[in-house]
From TrEMBL:
This is Alkylation response protein AidB-like acyl-CoA dehydrogenase. Keywords: Flavoprotein, Oxidoreductase. SUPFAM superfamilies: Acyl-CoA dehydrogenase C-terminal domain-like. Residues 2-111 form the Acyl-CoA dehydrogenase/oxidase C-terminal domain.
Amino acid sequence: MAFGSALGDLGMVQQMLADSEIDIEASRALILRTAWELDTGSAAASQLTSVSKTFVAEAVNRVVDRAVQICGALGISAADAPPARLFREVRPFRIYDGPSETHRFAITRRAVRPYRQSRTGVADG
Ligand SMILES: Cc1cc2nc3c(=O)[nH]c(=O)nc-3n(C[C@H](O)[C@H](O)[C@H](O)COP(=O)(O)OP(=O)(O)OC[C@H]3O[C@@H](n4cnc5c(N)ncnc54)[C@H](O)[C@@H]3O)c2cc1C
């Protein structure tokens, strides 16, 4: 409760909850698509693995960050409360298995490769 209302009835909190639902559903869809491409041995699997890893690692951080914000001081200061614990746990997602910057570098390299090859005739690996 805040200002006499349930948090979920406050407009700006509703926006944060909606954005988290969008991040969660988009992450689920991307993971399922990537798993399908991997299962079928598709050539698109490498690119989608990097796209999924980057998007989901950043989305889960946004979701947990909003949860902390919604819970206020309790969200960040109570060491055993779920938001504070999750906050510590999800931050490394953007670093391990390749930092987001490294994946973005690889995603761009794959995205421009066909155009670079058609312009120069040289494959850059
Ligand atoms: C909790 C945790 C668990 C881990 N578990 C494992 C494990 O089980 N097995 C394992 O092998 N490793 C593990 N690691 C290591 C992890 O994979 C590396 O930390 C990660 O690959 C980043 O390497 P680095 O720490 O050497 O950072 P660096 O390579 O030194 O990069 C530092 C920063 O520089 C930036 N950067 C790096 N490259 C680029 C680039 N090309 N373009 C732009 N910016 C760039 C990024 O912001 C990056 O975060 C784990 C790490 C953590 C935090």
